[in-house]
Amino acid sequence: MQHILSEAFPAMEQRYRANLLNCISGFKSLHLVGTINLNKQTNLAPFSQVMHIGADPALIGLLVRPHTVSRHTLENILETSVFTLNNVREDFLLQSHHTSARWDESEFKECRLTPWYSTRLTAPYVAEANVRIGLKLVETHTLKTNKTVLVVGAVQEIMFPRNCLMADGYLDMEKAGSLTSLGLDSYHHTQALARLSYAKPDRLPSLLQLDLVE
Amino acid sequence: MQHILSEAFPAMEQRYRANLLNCISGFKSLHLVGTINLNKQTNLAPFSQVMHIGADPALIGLLVRPHTVSRHTLENILETSVFTLNNVREDFLLQSHHTSARWDESEFKECRLTPWYSTRLTAPYVAEANVRIGLKLVETHTLKTNKTVLVVGAVQEIMFPRNCLMADGYLDMEKAGSLTSLGLDSYHHTQALARLSYAKPDRLPSLLQLDLVE
To answer: What is the pTM of this model?
Structure first.
């Protein structure tokens, strides 16, 4: 086992430290965040710090780090109060990763991804994505320690492939083809191991087998 | 494509809605959070809302939902200011999932997981985990909308298997055997697809091939 104390972090080369500390907290969800400003300029950026905040009311959080190219995302959300989350699949992974470069024009155009609009929100969705979430800004929190911003959004609508919903509400994101990410630049398929029963003290968890909604 | 508007959420059966909305935001990291109170009672609980907040200084966030059995985690962190994150692997997945039940005594004892202590922190680590992070409380933010608490911790130390570190600081969590989770009860292995080069406007991202640190 390798053991590194925090005193060693400051002396590490910047990119090395960023890789190590981005990886250590494990696999993350991977989304393209779609926004638009008041001048109708669209923006698209990859985010891996997306979290489930609540189901009733339905809330999702997005962590926006300071001093990165993704600040357009935060500025646009603060201007228009809406944003979209779009899953990333293998067939447009290169284009998705490429949206993180510093582009002058919209990443949709520069990276050949297709904007799609619902009637519910002004923010653009990614047509290539097959799981999409539309959100409306609820609140933001700025961390004192490094000015990272937690954006909390209320879910306005969700879209997903018909063959992925199970009878108990479970969504098979693996079947949808959603990737997971690790660190700054690593992308992974997943392979289902088990769904386990609701944990109770009087018995060991058991495997769940559930029906697909036709 | 199935399209659900937010107006449909309140009428959904509670567990169905929880499954759907926990899944829709995608794969998450999976950790056992180890804490201890001032009476030396240990606690262990599974968390999937863990996020990278920064590398310099090294910060990790943990989202603690209100009104769940995991409130002991938050109470202990506020009491002692320290907590640990421990990765979950297939060989102790059942025990890890079982820690989410309502136990009277410490989940370490009830679920047959082994506490391990470093000299750095009073909070317990999980000996079965091979990726471990020790953290000290920096700040908390309580969301107005549903009282969820974002706990921000400063990384005090990290531990991981020797054969997982690449020359550029990338940690191969797949080789470490870390699982990823989806929704409330689904666990997945991962399969590496690609590491992609730092994105620049003048070229398409390319595959990275990097050396392992011996």
So the answer is: 0.95
